[in-house]
């Protein structure tokens, strides 16, 4: 299957006002996780644009440190994903606590970068865009188009870069299983 780039959503849809934002239900982690995954898939190109702007500014101010920081984070992510696919206990932890998994990657990257060079480049160039994405995805309420796009990605009708990343974090399987259960119930 060919990877498709998701369309850039209208900025007034991405950040329209307080009526489309709400605090997530911290007691229902599954529902909050579903909201974050859905928003990450739906607004992925908008998130990429915001992250590219932040990375460009920081990269312009400190290009070598930004390159080192980005390389360390990518290598750490790939290493943790590889290890979690080979160790069942880590795989279960990654699936149950994806945010913790990302935090461990970021903390490991932070310590390695602090050993190699400039920590502030890491904080502003890498962590800030990820934090902005997570906060927006957590607070933004989903709409019908958002849910439909998420289902299409979940059942494999389309494949996007964010879908590939979420697959690596094993956050897509639940939606596929839920859709399969729903289809089997409808057939009965």
Automatic annotation (TrEMBL):
Keywords, ordered alphabetically: Acetylation, Cell membrane, Cytoplasm, Cytoskeleton, Endoplasmic reticulum, Membrane, Transmembrane, Transmembrane helix
InterPro entries in UniProt: Prenylated_rab_accept_PRA1 (IPR004895)
Gene Ontology BP, a term: negative regulation of transport
Transmembrane segments annotated in the record for this chain: 40-61, 67-85, 97-113, 119-139
Any one GO cellular component localisation term in the record: endoplasmic reticulum membrane
Membrane topology: Multi-pass membrane protein
Domain of life: Eukaryota
Record's subcellular location: Cell membrane; Cytoplasm, Cytoskeleton; Endoplasmic reticulum membrane; Membrane
Primary location: membrane
Protein family per UniProt: Belongs to the PRA1 family.
Entry protein name: PRA1 family protein
Organism the protein comes from: Smutsornis africanus (Double-banded courser)
